[in-house]
Prior knowledge:
Elements: H1 3-26, H2 33-56, H3 60-64, H4 68-92, H5 98-105, H6 108-120, H7 128-142, H8 154-177, H9 181-203, H10 208-213, H11 215-236, H12 242-249, H13 252-263, H14 270-297
Helix pairs in contact: 1-11, 1-13, 2-4, 2-9, 2-11, 4-8, 4-9, 5-8, 6-8, 6-12, 7-14, 8-12, 9-11
Amino acid sequence: MTKSFSIICAIITTFIWGTAFIAQDTGMDNIGPLTFNAARFWVGFITILPIAIFFEKKKIISEIHKNKPKFFKYLCIMGVSLFLGTSLQQASLQFTNVANAAFFTIFYVPLVPVLLFFIYSQKVHWSIWPSIGLCIYGVYLLSNFSDSEIMKGDALVILCSLFWALHIIFAGKFMEIFDIPVFYAALQGFLVATLSTITAYTFEEIIISNILLESSSIIYAGVLSGGVAFTLQMFAQKNIEEAPAAIIYSLEGVFAVIAAWIILDQLLDINNIIGCILILIAVIFSQLAPGTKKLVNN
C-alpha cells in the first residue's frame, strides 16, 4: 500500500466526515444524541462486517494472534475513545452552534503531537507546528467563530477533541502491527454501538417510531461516516504518521462548509474562502516538507 493511496483514503474519509456533519446535526430533531449514535453505528457495523468477512476472513485469526494483548488493548482504547468522542460531539450540538463546534473540535490537531510525545516520547517533524497554526487559524476563519459567543456546549467539544486525538494516535499504532483494517473497523463499530445503546437506554427514552423519522440521516451517517469512513481511516493511517494525518482530517471543516453551501444554500464570505485556502496550504505543507530534506540529501 503506497503513501499516495493512504492520502487518498484520508481525504475521502475527511470528505465523508465533513458532509456527514449536516446529517448529525439534523438527525436529532426527534431523538437524543446517544440514540442517534447507537443507531448510526449499528448501521455502520452491519454494513462493514460482511465486507470484512469477504475480504479478510482468511487472515483474521492469524493477525489477531500476532499480538493478542495489544489487539484487544487497542480495540478497547479506540472503541471507548470513539464512543466518547462521537457522543460528546453529538451532545454538544444541542448546546452550541456549528461555528463553535467546528472551531473547538479542531483542537485534536495540536493535541495529537503533544500526546504522542507524552505517551510514546515521539517527536514530530518541525513542519507540523506551522501547519497546525495555519490549520487552526483557517478553521477560525472558516467557522466564523469571531462572530460567535462562548457557549456551554463548547466544553463538551473541547473534551471531545481529546478523545478524537487518542483515537487517531492508536489507529496509527494499530496499523503498524496488524493488517485487518476492515474487520477492525467493524469490531470498533460494534463496540461503539453497544456502549451507545446501553447509555441511551440509561439516559434517554428510545422510541422506535422516532428513530425511523430520522432514518435518512441515520443511514447516511451510519453507512458512510460510521462504516466506510472509519474503515478508510485505518487504510489511511497505514502509511501516514499520526500528526500529519490529523492535519489532513482538519479538511473536515472545509468539506462541511462546502456541503452547507451546496445543500443548505449558506453563503461563503471572503473569510470562509481564505480559511479553506489556509487549511489546504497546511495539509500540503505537512505532507511535502518532511520529504524535502530527503530529496536534498539525495
